Amino acid sequence: MKVAVIGTGYVGLTTAVSLAVKGHEVLGIDVDAAKIEQLSNGRSPIYEPGLDQVLLETLGQGKIRFSTNLVEAKEAQVVFVCVGTPETEDGEADLRYLHAALQDIATLHNHSPKERTLVIKSTVPVGTGDQAAVSLRHCKELQVVSNPEFLREGCALEDALNPSRIIVGADSEEAIAVMQTLYSGLSAPWVITTRANAELIKYASNAFLAARISFMNELARLSAVLGTDVTVVSHGMGLDSRIGSQFLRAGVGFGGSCFPKDTIALLKLANQHGVTLSLLEKVREVNASQPVWFFNQLVSKIPDLAGKRIAVLGLAFKPDTDDIREAPALRILAELQAAGAVVTAYDPIAAKAVEALFPDVEYVTTPEAAFAGAHAAVLVTEWQACVKLDWKLIKEQMEQPLLFDGRNAWPHDELKKAGFEYLGVGKS
Ligand SMILES: NC(=O)c1ccc[n+]([C@@H]2O[C@H](COP(=O)([O-])OP(=O)(O)OC[C@H]3O[C@@H](n4cnc5c(N)ncnc54)[C@H](O)[C@@H]3O)[C@@H](O)[C@H]2O)c1
Ligand SMILES: O=c1ccn([C@@H]2O[C@H](COP(=O)(O)OP(=O)(O)O[C@H]3O[C@H](CO)[C@@H](O)[C@H](O)[C@H]3O)[C@@H](O)[C@H]2O)c(=O)[nH]1
């Protein structure tokens, strides 16, 4: 099919490339001309494993191209909207990019009318798809579908090509048939429902996953006091198939461009309808205090951090991404700086973006270099490069062999045997 994708960020670019892999003819659209030029030259503006190679392949096959001008999409049978829906100052979803994209689609459709399906993939509040259908009702032959995305950064391409489920909110058989043709190469369970249900499935999924993490983070705080090991506890819990083992890892809190903004957007949406989601409020509260709780663990061992050299390993909000949106590392760096620590940080990909926010931190190009002369080291993001280390060499290099494992990812037993003092999150 001929497909246009508006917005070539983490979701849009991944969607565009994976549709091209499945044989569709794809046009990626973005308002950012520099991004479009880079993409047209076969370079991905974001770091996402495997994406560069597939982008080059599909460009080479003539399956994908990029432009700043949606008018070039006049042949498109399907137009995806994948623009950002960030948080407004009030915490609601900011729909201004979505509205601009809808306006562009209306213009395109008026100039080049044809049977066309508009697919909203951006995460949007319940009711947005229905409102779009009403505001675009003058565009005859245009169907509006809600098709939320569940990919994770760091494995976006893999997730897009092997989705856990395909959720389609639509109100016509024709639109459902278009989606079935579009995704015919994908094997996943389908849920065909209303647009509103589809929109709520997206927010509810993220909120539920965030709740599991906050639950485990509070349990880790309890474990720290009881002397129990939260990683063993979560393993034991996860073996119950009713619970499952995923998203039970305690850590320094969830970050990224989705859980933080989607949980507040859901709270705001509920409030607007007179409903208080008190559990979700707590989930966010626990998450906001988790990096501070972790930092206080460090302070309990080094009460005066002024002038102390602290190594920070990992800065991105999770491994295998360059994304630092709402990364817990930013909060930890701020606390360390306020306490007067001398910070040396390492991240394989995200250091440059963090440097713009924290220019006084020293950024090094190998993980080992971060440990040199350190009074303590802190693991914030469990990149393989930050976890698989030569601990013998590191012990020799550190001023004091004190480790704070914010992801319970360093080899606890080995480190203790080697003479390190180790403190994890609910694990000591
Ligand atoms: N990042 C994720 O892992 C993820 C996963 C699932 C869903 N989502 C949702 O998908 C949406 C996009 O997220 P993202 O992380 O890809 O955002 P992003 O910020 O990486 O990308 C958005 C892109 O849209 C472009 N854009 C903005 N307005 C435009 C317009 N009018 N016309 C054309 N391009 C325009 C921007 O220049 C940018 O390149 C959000 O609603 C998000 O909540 C994100
Ligand atoms: O057990 C866990 C799992 C995750 N995290 C943290 O939670 C955050 C989010 O991680 P993850 O969900 O893997 O990354 P995202 O790319 O933000 O993906 C989430 O948000 C996307 C955007 O909505 C959805 O599409 C995905 O399904 C959903 O997993 C990160 O800071 C992780 O470190 C934990 O602390 N403990």
TrEMBL record:
Molecular functions per Gene Ontology: NAD binding; UDP-glucose 6-dehydrogenase activity
InterPro entries in UniProt: 6-PGluconate_DH-like_C_sf, NAD(P)-bd_dom_sf, UDP-Glc/GDP-Man, UDP-Glc/GDP-Man_DH_C, UDP-Glc/GDP-Man_DH_C_sf, UDP-Glc/GDP-Man_DH_dimer, UDP-Glc/GDP-Man_DH_N, UDPglc_DH_bac
GO biological process, one term: UDP-glucuronate biosynthetic process
Keyword annotations from UniProtKB, A to Z: NAD, Oxidoreductase
SMART domains referenced in this protein's UniProt entry, alphabetically: UDPG_MGDP_dh_C
Pathway assignment: Nucleotide-sugar biosynthesis; UDP-alpha-D-glucuronate biosynthesis; UDP-alpha-D-glucuronate from UDP-alpha-D-glucose: step 1/1
The name this protein goes by in its record: UDP-glucose 6-dehydrogenase
Organism: Brevibacillus panacihumi W25
Lineage: Bacteria, Bacillati, Bacillota, Bacilli, Bacillales
